[in-house]
Amino acid sequence: MFTFEGKDVTADAGAPSLRDLGVHLSREGRYVGAAQRFWPVSLHSLAVTDLLPRKLEHHGLLHDAAEALTGDIPKPFKIPEMKALEIRLLHRIYESLRVEFPTPDEEKQIKEADARIFAAEVHLFGPSKAWGVYVPAVVDEEAERVLRVYMSTPSEDYLGPDGGVVKLFCWRLRDAVQRARNNARKRRFDRSEKGRACKGGRYNRSEKGRARQRRYRHSVNGRAIRRSYKYSEKGRACQRRYRQSEKGRAR
User: Fold this and answer.
1) What is the pLDDT of residue 133?
2) Would 232 be classed as within a structural domain?
3) What is the mean pLDDT of residues 228-243?
4) Both 63 and 183 in a single domain?
5) Do 123 and 209 share a domain, yes or no?
6) How far is Cα 92 from Cα 235, in angstroms, rounded to an integer?
């Protein structure tokens, strides 16, 4: 198949671009049209993301990314071969964006947030008996509040390629992916020999490290931080302890 931006994607090769994901998921409705209103996968993904910690934002936005290529397949028709294909496509999308796949603990958090939003969608879009799903007796107020924010979105915001929902999804995904890459780069550096040396303080004690600290202390930011600390409650307490110490009295 060819994506919105013209990328050739097959079952064995290729991956959609970031904008492809925003456009495709915004035009793909959940529940194959069985809901009382059209509800795009992109808004569902944004709602799930709002229930997750910031470090998992890219996982929340990408948890249904394979549906940009396969469409939203109802569970009764999602045979094992189709499920395996979705997982392969999702791994390929993660590789194309150069981010790590979620760990088992992270997947558990994503599934919990997904289940909360799903229950809220069933409660708001109904009818639960016809769908044959369990709806908790206690309504998840936080999940419903998140959904109601997105429910006021006009259709042109997710059906048009330059609509507000498409832009919001792409902007949040681009920002979250960049943040995830930076965090992964920092983790790799911390595990490296140079990173362990910096963490152990050897860099700060070296000539290069001391010179860098001196430059920072004399910079605008460094002077501002010293002034703010000096007149803070913690800074004043530190000065009092120093004046009362033997070294302070001798000075």
Assistant:
1) 57
2) yes
3) 81
4) yes
5) no
6) 52
Number of domains in the chain: 2
pLDDT at 168: 94
DSSP string, 119-173: HHHHHHH--HHHHT----SS--HHHHHHHHHHHT--THHHHSTT-HHHHHHHHHH
Classify residue 210: in a domain, yes or no: yes
CB 70 within 8 A of CB 85: yes
Q: How many CA atoms lie within 13 A of 114 on its CB side?
A: 17
- pLDDT, residue 174, reads 95
**Residue 233 CB contacts under 8 Å (≥ 6 apart), including other chains:** none
CA-nearest of 219, 189, 182, 221 to 203 is 189
| Domain extent for 145 | 18-187
Report phi then psi at 40, rounded to 5.
-70, 155
pTM above 0.70, yes or no: yes
Q: How many residues does the chain have?
A: 251
